[in-house]
Specification:
Elements (H helix, E strand, L loop, with lengths): L13 H4 L15 E3 L2 H8 L4 E7 L7 E7 L3 E9 L2 E7 L6 E8 L1 E6 L2 E5 L3 E6 L3 E7 L4 E9 L1 H12 L12 E3 L3 H18 L2 H4 L1 H18 L5 H5 L7 H13 L7 H8 L3 H12 L3 H17 L8 H7 L5 H12 L3 H12 L1
Antiparallel strand pairs: 1-3, 2-5, 3-4, 4-11, 5-10, 6-9, 6-11, 7-8, 7-10, 9-12
């Protein structure tokens, strides 16, 4: 059995906390598609690179509910299966993809790089898909249910490169199982719930800025808090980034707040690692690059809402700039400017009249 994360230490989750995303518990909700034929399930999954086969028990029936939500950097698969069938599946064309998977019911056994890993509902699985050879799932008390979030190759590679240089995901030897009772386990659970909600209600599709930040924050969270082969590199004391790099980063963010920027994008543009960029911002500005970018975008929203000619509702302006939870947005806006967004609009319209 693989080593498991003990969840010691406090996960560094600042990048996730500020993401203003509406969180609803969609993890336990029934998927939207259903059927009683295993072939129908295969036909639904196969276009998305999931290859499955089964070992049916002829004397028992089979029913399934499943669906898939696809985003720019993240996909989510929800599956709910009846008892009576054991089945295995693997992923095709999955080089560089990273999966985070929860069990609501049932049990599973993964074969990762030749090693057998058991899964239960009290744990969350973190799997580089190139290393997963197969997974056997089984219903318990009549039910198997799972939610799997997959981070796409592009964003995974970008974060890995910004953090460790030319390192392949499959070479990290990530600890595959994390206990949900730990701090990092709870944070990952919240992350999967947030991402699933954002994909199914369309928020992450409508706000590429929020989607880009969430997907990168998810990978960075795992790299910094789940043990792997290069964990010791993160604990080394790095050199400080020269102030000129931080100035360039600020200039770049102010010139491009409309783009779906991430820490990796900014770091690559100015020529430093993501970690050095974050440490430099904390030393010089007393905050993170993402928090600094959020303030720049708040200023852009304030400017847009202050224009008499603006006809967009507050919610659309906020979403355009990456804020998807209106209650939280209104609170941070009031903290920044001393009034609510709606007050800014009223003042602008009063001036116009």
């Amino acid at each position: 059995m693989e080593n498991r994360s003990d969840g010691s230490g406090n996960p560094r989750t600042a990048n996730i906390r500020w993401l203003d995303l509406m969180v609803e518990d969609v993890l336990a909700a029934p998927p939207t598609r259903s059927g009683s034929s295993f072939q129908e399930l295969l036909e639904m999954l196969h276009p998305h690179g999931i290859k499955a086969h089964s070992s049916p028990r002829p004397d028992e029936s089979f029913h399934w509910h499943a669906d898939i939500a696809i985003g720019a950097e993240i996909d989510v698969v929800r599956a709910d299966l009846s008892a009576g069938w054991d089945w295995r599946y693997s992923y095709e064309n999955s080089a560089g993809e990273l999966a985070i998977s929860l069990l609501n019911a049932g049990q599973a056994e993964m074969l990762i790089a030749g090693k057998s890993i058991q899964r239960t509902p009290s744990e969350i699985a973190i799997v580089p898909l190139p290393t997963m050879q197969a997974q056997r799932v089984e219903a318990v008390d009549g039910r198997y249910s799972s939610v799997t979030l997959t981070l796409h190759t592009g964003v995974v590679t970008k974060v890995l490169s910004a953090t460790f240089g030319s390192t392949a995901l499959e070479d990290l030897n990530l600890t595959p199982i994390v206990d949900l009772s730990t701090g990092i386990g709870q944070t990952l659970l919240q992350l999967v719930r947030t991402s699933t909600t954002g994909l199914y209600d369309g928020i992450l599709v409508r706000s590429p800025k929020a989607s880009a930040l969430l997907s990168e924050a998810a990978i960075q969270l795992i790299l910094e808090n789940v043990p792997h082969r290069l964990t010791d590199r993160l604990s080394r004391h790095p050199l400080d980034a020269p102030p000129r790099y931080i100035r360039r980063a600020v200039e770049y963010m102010r010139a491009n707040p409309h783009l779906p920027l991430t820490i990796s994008d900014i770091a690559a543009t100015v020529g430093v690692s993501s970690r050095l960029l974050q440490l430099g911002f904390r030393k010089i500005h007393g905050t993170t690059p993402i928090a600094y970018l959020r303030q720049i975008r708040l200023e852009a929203i304030h400017d847009e809402l202050s224009r008499p000619e603006n006809v967009l509702p507050v919610s659309e302006v906020a979403l355009k700039w990456g804020f998807t939870h209106m209650g939280r947005f209104a609170a941070v806006y009031r903290t920044a400017f001393g009034l609510y967004p709606s007050d800014t609009v009223r003042r602008a319209r009063g001036f116009c009249s």
